[in-house]
Model the fold of this input.
Amino acid sequence: MAAKVDHAQFRLIIPSQTRYLNLVTGLAKRASVVAGLDDATAAKVSIAVDEAVTNVILHAYQGEGHHSVELELRFTPQALEVHIWHSGQGIREDQLVLPDPSEYIKHPRKGGLGLLLMSRFMDEVRFRADEDSGRNECCLIKKIS
Amino acid sequence: MADLSIAVRQAGGVAVVLPAGFINAHTVRDFEATLEGLVQGGQYRILINCRDLSYISSAGLGAIMGLIETVREHGGDILLSNLQDNVFAIFDTLGFTQLYRVFPDESQALASPEAGG
Done:
């Protein structure tokens, strides 16, 4: 008997290497268009996914390339959801501090802008730890208006 | 085709950097090395012509941010021109359009006082 397939979602697993970023962002952009978002919004979703996956590779896994990053795209009538799972160091939402762009202008420095782009370009950004699996999740949601 | 290629040419006293493709965490080292090489060589007036830049993530913005104080301390600047809409949206969202002079095209950037024009 054929396995039941949920046609509104699918998963992609990539090695924790930045060489695959372009593949992931291209997928996110095209998935956004399939979900019904316009081209400009699709570009913003792809940037947010780039930033989230980059954070996993460089910070959660500290640049180690032998781990896995799992992405799940969920298509609903209301939104496109991108769930990103990893087994590296997680981010606790209560410790998140988004940088203030005006402070960046006064005191230019490198780093810290990825979370800000994610929060500006998506409708919801959530981080959580799954205690059962020991994995961490970043969930990005873009509503379809 | 490579994700990113970078050309540099001289226009008077200004180094014009032309990144083509994608600047993300994977390709940013080449972009950063190009900018750092110019600054280390005493080139403090830099124009980044983004005509062929399809995409830039925060990694690329960080590379520019990391050098802006140095070039301005030496009386120079980093200028931007020919930004595609999605690239402009990223710069604008983060307030970078207040921090950097953005020009519609290269000739206007080169004619500006910041470029010595």
About this structure: The beta strands of chain A are 9-15, 68-75, 79-86, 124-130, 135-143.
